[in-house]
Specification:
5 helices; elongated; mainly alpha
């Protein structure tokens, strides 16, 4: 495996991103088509509407499972990076830093972190701009 950098740092879970999520979307569309086709048929209407409801719930469950897990990872990263900044500088991160910026700063080496954090505040850098500004990349191989 090559070293992690800006161009390859995004991680995907193939079964989730390329199979489960698209399949859930296809199921929702298919069940909606079935519902529309069964509007005149009162015997099928109830089961078709239930399929749409269940399909929508499946898609929402997938979405929320993913977003809740990422939110928990974001909180952990914020705490870890705040501790790392404290160890390096004796101070916690400035409260002006947003969580997304801190998440991007996790890729910065220990030597770059304090200056890049100050620059992120002063220049209101986006997370993408922060990642592009990093000279020595510190990989994060655990986030998905």
């Amino acid at each position: 495996m090559s070293a992690q950098n800006y161009s390859n740092h995004r991680q995907y879970v193939p079964l989730f991103h390329y199979v489960a999520a698209p399949l859930a979307a296809v199921i929702l569309v298919g069940s909606a088509v079935n519902l529309v086709q069964s509007i005149g048929d009162h015997e099928r209407l109830y089961s078709a509407s239930l399929l749409v409801a269940v399909s929508a719930c499946l898609l929402l469950a997938l979405w929320f499972c993913r977003s809740f897990a990422l939110k928990a990872q974001d909180r952990a990263i914020r705490a870890e990076e705040n501790l790392r900044h404290y160890v390096l500088t004796g101070k916690l991160f400035d409260t002006a830093l947003e969580t997304r910026q801190i998440i991007a700063l996790r890729f910065a080496s220990d030597l770059e972190l304090p200056a890049l954090a100050r620059r992120a505040i002063a220049e209101r850098l986006t997370p993408d701009a922060i990642k592009k500004a990093i000279q020595v990349w510190r990989p994060d191989l655990y986030r998905v």
